Amino acid sequence: MPFNYRKKQTTRKRSNLDLSVIKNALGDIDQGKSIRGVALEYGIDRNTLRNYLRDRSKLTKISEQGSQFKTSMIFTIEEEKALVEYLIACSKMNYGLTRQATMQLAYEYAKMNSKKVPDCWTSNNCAGKDWFRGFMTRNPELSLRTPEATSLSRSTSFNRKNVTDFFENLKEVREKYQFEAHNIYNCDETGCTTVQECPKVIASKHMRQVGQVTSAEPFASL
């Protein structure tokens, strides 16, 4: 069964009525206006108005259904926004969180804020898969990305001084030995990687390249 349910199309279109509109329409009818006139004025079906006149308890049901979404959410909009910002910040520092790590973080985040969570969260010490799918759907700026493995030394040593020293040494070696073109090989991590494969992490869709710190060098000298 697909996660995103799509309601079947019927020949009769049902409109989503605002609770305040229905209350105002019923108030006009109580003041003596005709059902037909009020239905035309507010754009409500006459049979619908008659149903609410016969059973006004349906208004309470509509009010409860309208607030169902907010009460079923674990985190508020502001709390989810803070979680999104944290995930993006981690990925920018080459420490992106995997799906499982994000679900564990969500559980710890809920515990820290004294949130009421489902029993399966507590038993597994992490959020559920349904929550994760909903979280990614509500925050389309996030996506699961395959990162490029980046060694810790490479991540911490990539600065202006070290890069300048590298090219100065390269220039000195080339001038000293006068290498010809057929003796120069381009051996990078694309084809000669020795580092373990990184799992997908959560990062911003707008990041061109995503890195992930590993414990080994991304390539070996051959």
Automatic annotation (TrEMBL):
**GO molecular-function terms, A-Z:** DNA binding
This protein's source sits in the domain of life called Eukaryota
InterPro entries to which the protein is assigned, alphabetical: CenT-Element_Derived (IPR050863)
Q: Which Gene Ontology CC terms are recorded?
A: nucleus
Q: Which PANTHER family does this entry report, sorted A to Z?
A: POGO TRANSPOSABLE ELEMENT WITH KRAB DOMAIN (PTHR19303:SF74), TRANSPOSON (PTHR19303)
Protein name as it appears in the record: HTH CENPB-type domain-containing protein
Recorded source organism is: Acanthoscelides obtectus
